[in-house]
Amino acid sequence: MKKIYNQKQLSACLILVSTLFLAVTSSAQMVTIPIETKHNALVLQTDKDKNLKMVYFGARLSDPAEYSRIPKMYSQSNDSGVLDDAYTPSGSANLAEPAITVTHADGNKSLNLVYVSHTITKIDDNISQLTVILKDPVYDFEVKLFYKTYYKEDVTEQWSVIRHGEKGEVILNKFASANLYLKGNGFWLKQYHGNWASEMQPEEARLTHGIKTIDSKLGTRANLYEPSMFMVSMDKAAGEDEGKVLFGAMEWSGNFKIDLELDPANNLRLIAGMNNAASEYHLKPNEDFTTPAFLYTYSEHGKGNASRQLQSWARKYKIVNGEGPRYTLLNNWESTYFDFNEDKLAELLKDTKKLGVDLFLLDDGWFGNKYPRNSDNAGLGDWQENRQKLPNGISSLIKEAKADGVKFGIWIEPEMVNPASNLYREHPDWVIKQPNRPEKYFRNQLVLDLSNPKVQDFVFNIVDSLFIKNPDLAYIKWDCNAVIYNAYSAYLKKNQSNLYIDYDRGLYKVLARIRVKYPKVPMMLCSGGGGRVDYGALQYFTEYWPSDNTEPLERIFMQWEYSYFFPAITSSNHVTDWGKQPIKFRVDVAMMGRMGFDIVVSKLSKQELDFCHEALKNYDELKDVIWHGDQYRLLSPWDNDAASLMYINSDHSKGVMFNYLVNNRYGAGTKLPIRLKGLDPEKTYQVKEINLSSGTNPAVNTETLTGNFLMTVGINPNVNEYHTSVVLELHAVK
Ligand code: GLA
Prior knowledge:
Elements: H1 7-13, E1 15-17, E2 24-25, E3 31-36, E4 40-46, E5 52-59, E6 100-103, E7 114-122, E8 127-135, E9 141-150, E10 155-164, E11 170-182, E12 187-193, E13 201-206, E14 210-215, E15 230-234, E16 244-250, E17 256-262, E18 268-274, E19 281-283, E20 289-290, E21 294-299, H2 302-318, E22 329-331, H3 333-336, H4 342-355, E23 359-362, H5 393-404, E24 407-412, E25 416-417, H6 422-426, E26 446-447, H7 453-469, E27 473-478, H8 499-517, E28 523-525, H9 535-538, E29 543-544, H10 552-562, E30 572-575, H11 583-590, E31 594-597, H12 606-628, E32 630-635, E33 642-648, E34 654-661, E35 684-690, E36 703-706, H13 707-712, E37 725-732
Parallel strand pairs: 22-23, 22-31, 23-24, 24-27, 27-28, 28-29, 30-31
Antiparallel strand pairs: 1-7, 2-3, 3-4, 4-5, 6-11, 7-8, 8-9, 9-10, 10-20, 10-21, 11-18, 11-19, 12-13, 12-15, 14-17, 15-16, 16-21, 17-18, 25-26, 32-33, 33-34, 34-37, 35-36, 35-37
Helix pairs in contact: 4-5, 7-8, 10-11, 11-12
Bound molecules: alpha-D-galactopyranose.
């Protein structure tokens, strides 16, 4: 895969730039290291005792020589000099919340880390990597800090590698990926909470003194209650187009912990990493402990700009095939649930063709014989076709799909097991559960122990044998419905506290193996809805499932929030029968991403089916703009009667604006024009309403207007109770 480099490849192809390349040394003792991207800089500096401090985070300066002069401009009280460490150790002179806590091989719990050296490596024209080595002057203990920067996108991935040469194991009690220090006149945190069917609910508030923690201890499905994505605004809560804001997220699908501490000097200490709860890690001498990356971007032009930076970074560098295409599809989960057979599926394959989408996605319920998967209480783990439902197997379905001219995809949930399964009986030691306590189930199932290499092989083989038997299989939906209760691994024996971390590492090993063998096959990351949406996992997937809640009004709000962190091409949006909205509204909402359907096609009226055909034609025209273009949020559903957002391609010649009514009160609608963004003011655009339901008048007559007019005055999409959703296509005409 293009984005995954191993250490050897790196050293072979990288140009090592000398230590002094960007370092500005203002005195023999003091080293200043600016880490710059196109618009921003993070500046590290050593003090007289060689402690490494983070002295600046903000817009970059035109003269790098001036970075070393920044600290003098602050007269805040930081008497103990310990609050601004670039990676705060604990148990020595530093009493602030640590980034790292250890128990040395001799039982001593003190750690001090001082600057030794740094190198900057230029990976290509856009990507650089800074490595800073910190060492304990007393113990043979080292931490390397890594800052990988994506210049054009203003994105940084930061992680640490911990290593020791002590006589015996060291216990890592805490092990952050990153420790930032932000200065500002007050800080506002926007965070998210959720649950099944109500993912990505935002809350924004000013941070008060003390520590605010965002975390998960659920093991798998870690985002169920709280994802690791957040924003911190400085000086005031940033708006869509103005204000200073940092977006952060862990690239990790397991337990995480993000501490935001407004400290006694009124600065913000930010410590992000894997959660250390019940996870002290036993590290052998001379082994690397690599933390996952903490991802961040910063903008002085508001949340919209920060989100576009992150979206382009994700498309270019992180997700699988981010700059490529996606399939439209018909899924059968909501139309059949577990109740189907070959005949029914044959009909659905024909419906896939009739609807005019690329692929049919067979969901849960196709496997298990002794314990057939006819409901969610049996069968997980037994990945053989159910002979009653599918006597001729998956391969005959794929053949049939081919004959119908559509592709075929399949649902799996390979990390899980139902107690009612052969797998559970044959390999009880592969299951995460306490040996002496009653089992506790989440959706009637338990989690397999992916810290065990044999289980990793088993999970890899589920996918591998599906592809070996069915080379034409074109899509995988990978689900993960349970959290980890009663965490205990028979494999890890005495090292139980390694389980949460080794589980996730095991999962990534499996996914990496799959991607080596099947680099581009589209895979959807699903977790009982959006229980696992993070870039740690998404580097192996093409798209994610935001929520089982596909009620389109709810989806407008959720997709709006997800879009701050993830590009539209990754958002699987299915048209379903949830809610009361007409087909047009449902389709219009699903169009803002990777569109699919999960409806009974045969129940659509002729008019509805005609509408879907027309909309799919329009989608085909516009999908490139939606998937790969820049997204601008125009009118927030949280504060207005309507939501409005748009996508525009890179040469500003083609765009689409989506507008939806989100308030049912009398007279609700768009009274004022909505200003567009991201257009070329010099160009003239034809603005035309598309996705019209037959028999309804357009809300907007086709207009030809300059980019200047559209961005200064705007256009009124005339959203109201008669036109609850209005989609406008923009074409530059001159
Ligand atoms: C989870 C997923 C759904 C569906 C079911 C199948 O809930 O989120 O989309 O696949 O599992 O059991």
